[in-house]
Design goal:
The termini are far apart. By secondary structure, the chain is mainly beta. Helices cover about 10% and strands about 60% of the residues. It has one domain: Porin (Beta Barrel), CATH 2.40.160. An eight-stranded antiparallel barrel has the order 1-2-3-4-5-6-7-8. The chain has one helix and eight strands. It comes from Neolewinella xylanilytica. This is Outer membrane protein beta-barrel domain-containing protein.
């Protein structure tokens, strides 16, 4: 009996969210190519770049929900004698709250939660891999608080990727992306 009540309440909640729609802005937005500079946490990596894509649904003029996919590529300083190279792939559910409901300038604050998978390897000065055996994948869950702004069809954000686990590094990403379909109606 409790499962039936819970299922009914979940149905009501989801139907309310799915039928809600922004009055002033288009329903869907897509950051086709998100590009950015990343600052890795820890001491292993010195430089990182990120790229990805993000799709959002504007549930109201103030809120959006979406899904972010991102690939991070990290490298250490080659002057150390050996170079560490790492990659991290993430899939994160995100939600944003817009501070303005009108116009083309819309600052926002958001939060995401999702999964991260990554691997690292080390190369010597001659380009030979120093790790023994196969590459190992490491995974972690993470939170992604973010701040940013939308300028018409351009989105700029600063995101802190806080990972729960000791195998993958946290990182701050400064992202920029052109947005398709979004903007005022």
């Amino acid at each position: 009996m409790h499962k039936a009540h819970l299922s009914f309440l979940l149905f009501l909640l989801l139907s309310g969210v799915l039928t809600a729609q922004s009055i002033n802005y288009r329903a869907f937005e897509w950051d086709v190519v998100r590009l950015g500079y990343a600052i890795p946490g820890g001491e292993r990596f010195d430089l990182a770049v990120a790229m990805g894509t993000e799709v959002r649904y504007n549930a109201s003029d103030r809120t959006s929900i979406g899904l972010r996919n991102e690939l991070l590529a990290s490298i250490s300083d080659p002057d150390r004698g050996a170079s560490d190279i790492g990659t991290t792939l993430s899939v994160v559910a995100v939600g944003d709250y817009y501070l303005r409901t009108e116009g083309n300038f819309r600052p926002f604050a958001g939060l995401g939660f999702g999964g991260f998978v990554g691997t690292t390897t080390t190369y010597d000065d001659n380009g030979n891999r120093m790790d023994e055996g196969d590459l190992q994948l490491h995974s972690a869950l993470g939170l992604v608080p973010r701040l940013g702004l939308e300028l018409s069809h351009l989105r700029i954000a600063v995101e802190y990727n806080l990972l729960f686990g000791n195998q993958l590094s946290d990182y701050v990403g400064i992202m920029i992306a052109p947005t398709l379909f979004g903007g005022p109606k």
